Amino acid sequence: MDRRKFIGASALGLLGLGTFTQPGCRSGQTAQVVKPGDKTMVGSNTAGSETYGPLVDNAVGSLLAAHGGNVQQAGFVQGAPPHGQMKICFLGVENKSAEEMGDFREMLYEQIDQRIQSSGAYQSISRRVVEAGLRDCRLRPDELLLPQNQRMLAERLEQTQQPFDFILYATLTSGTTRSNADYQREYLLTLEMINVHNNQYAKQSATIVKKYNVSTWAKVKSWSPL
To answer: Fewest CB within 10 A of the end CB: N or C in the chain?
Structure first.
């Protein structure tokens, strides 16, 4: 066979082979919308919505149910009837667990904030207003445990017509129990609310325990000296 014809035929054959095998190399990823009532995905290595959602519901529900409405509200004038909803300055979610929360951290903030707003008795101050006030006062969230710093922030927010009655902290922690390659992790969401009028302290928590089981083949691989 002529050398040039042989090279050309070989090239065409390779192109044909590439065209034939290319579809098999494409990603097979698909997606679907989870409808209300459908079973959602459970994280195989870390916590997901199946863990964080119930934690928020239980912790916020317990805190607001245990906290009575008998508090002097922000802007209350002695002798005048109380008015409006009690205001909460929510300072965000602190992650002290063994896992990175990723985008769930912001989602937990929004879920807690929404539960507060829909409670009827409480109203949270805009996050943007709180963050701007902290910057102006040059304060970190943890420094608001001191009464003098609470008064400083309160005076700053009152200038924007945003007084508050409570300071709220949310903290996620975890504890891990291991059995060879399998492990169990307990997730604890704690909400701490401080009354800025009398410095009374309320605390409620919610817990979920989740087991992570490794397949037999994965266990053998993890124990292999190679």
So the answer is: C
